[in-house]
Amino acid sequence: MKIVIAIDSLKGSLSSMEAGNAIKEGVLKVSPEAQVLVKPLADGGEGTTEALSEGLGGEMVQVEVHGPMDVPVTAAYGWIRESKTAVMEMAAAAGITLVGKEKQPLHATTYGVGEMIRDAVKRGCRSFVIGIGGSATNDCGIGMLTALGFEFLDASGNPVGIDADALKDVARIRTDHVMPELEECSFRVACDVTNPLCGPNGATFIYGPQKGVTEEMKEKLDQDLGHFAEVTKRCLNADCADMEGAGAAGGLGYAFMAYLKADLRPGIDLVLEAVDMDEAMKGADLVFTGEGRLDHQTAMGKAPVGIAALAKKHGAAVIAFAGSVADGAEACNEKGIDAYFPILRQVVTLDEAMEPQTARRNMIKTAEQVMRLVRAVKK
Questions:
Q1: Strand pairing of 127-131 and 59-66?
Q2: Residue 49 burial (C-beta neighbours within 10 Å; 0-12, 13-18, 19+)
Q3: Of the residues 238, 268, 298, the one at which a domain ends
Q4: Closest Cα partner for 23 from 311, 343, 325, 272?
Q5: Which of 30, 150, 212, 371 could be 105's S-S partner, Cβ–Cβ 3.0 to 4.6 Å?
Q6: CATH number of residue 284's parent domain
Q7: Are 202 and 196 in contact (CB under 8 A)?
Q8: Nearest in space to 15 (alpha carbons), one of 39, 31, 36
């Protein structure tokens, strides 16, 4: 029997690979002859860097960069030496959690994201997988691009700033000092929104308020992003403002497409491709997946449902495990998950349930009992 295990992390308890290996241990207690393959799983958001780095044999690299408010922060990204791949989350350098209660959307910058990319390029990286969720910025990526060597000048030929407040002043763009290695690099960006850059459904109007954009700021800031896109179109012949995802992360999606020729993809699709999940599923009889909490939101496109859809394409049965199961989780059964099981074995406090050793033990024992059921049915 071939079994594929791909489970999202149980946040605060087990990483994706730790949870997967615990399931494997339970499975092998019952079926030691089974061919068991454990793959990392994430949805392109928080935890993707750690999951892919660990699952693909990489290492975590720490680098000091400028945070969103120009204060130094230590950002981490995954470096997979064998494939010259870097796995990053923009939130590590410019995330909403890195700013205080007094958000300043006109001055928040993505400069640190560019510094992370620059560091990876210098290490030899030529392939990037980047998640852009959780941003604190609305700077259209001008900060990131400046860190990579693009020069944005005003009408007098002077450099403008590196934040949203500088967008209105951009008149010319110079590329003389852009990192030449970028021509050799490919960028795959995890993006689960389809908003254009500007307009009522664009970056500023839809996502700006959560970053501190007030009603009074919206119209002018939206116009500033449009102005930046027009100058980009004129100087670089790049017209991406209306493309799906351009409005993601305060226009960072636009910057990736217009300046770095990035491919924006739904997070789960990008992750499944990165770990070659389709190939792993070939010939699989049974697939185990899951996440920390299964509920109706899981069925709306989260990682376990993405795994289930791929498993069904290959004719495999799908079983999900979760730290907890909420009302509405039955919607998962309509999305390819044949059955799901909570791993809790007795009444405990939340802190006790989330303790890594306890979670691992519960995962092993639950997987073992489910596997016993599978074997009994197949006799």
A1: unpaired
A2: buried
A3: 268
A4: 343
A5: 212
A6: 3.40.50.10350
A7: yes
A8: 39
SS3 label, residue 311: helix
What local confidence, expressed as pLDDT, does residue 229 receive?
98
Number of structural domains in the chain: 2
Placement of tokens 């499975």 in the chain = 27
**Rounded Cα gap, residues 285 and 1, in angstroms:** 6
Q: Which pLDDT score, from 0 to 100, does residue 192 have?
A: 86
- Let me know whether 200 and 224 are in one domain: yes
86 vs 131: CA distance, rounded Å: 11
Helix axes 16-30, 48-55, angle to 10 degrees: 50
Contact 288, 3 (CB under 8 A): yes
Query: Last residue of a domain, which of 220, 239, 268?
Result: 268
What is the spatial distance between Cα 31 and Cα 25, in angstroms, rounded to a whole number?
10
Query: Hunting for tokens 């792993």 — which residue is that?
Result: 280
Enter the pTM of the model: 0.87
Q: Could you tell me if 340 and 286 lie in one domain?
A: yes
Residue with tokens 């197949």: 378
Which domain does 209 fall in, by range?
A: 48-268
User: Any idea which residue has 């074997």 for tokens?
Assistant: 375
Locate all alpha helices (DSSP H) within 15-70, ordered by sequence: 16-30, 48-55
Dig out the tokens for 249 from the structure: 């992360």
The structure tokens listed for 105 are 């959307």
Rounded CA separation 23/282 (Å): 20
Domain of 251, CATH number, reads 3.90.1510.10
pLDDT one digit per residue (tens) for the chain, 379 residues: 999 999 999 988 999 999 999 999 999 999 999 999 999 998 887 788 988 888 888 999 999 999 999 999 999 999 999 999 999 999 999 999 999 877 899 999 999 999 999 999 999 999 999 999 889 999 999 999 999 999 999 999 999 999 999 999 999 999 999 999 999 999 999 998 899 999 999 999 999 999 999 999 999 999 999 999 999 999 999 999 999 999 999 999 999 999 999 999 998 898 999 899 999 999 999 999 999 999 998 888 789 999 999 999 999 999 999 999 999 999 999 999 999 999 998 888 888 888 999 999 999 999 999 999 999 998 7
One domain, residues 248 and 297 = no
Residues 99 and 31 grouped into a single domain = no
- Give the integer Cα–Cα distance in Å for 226 and 221: 9
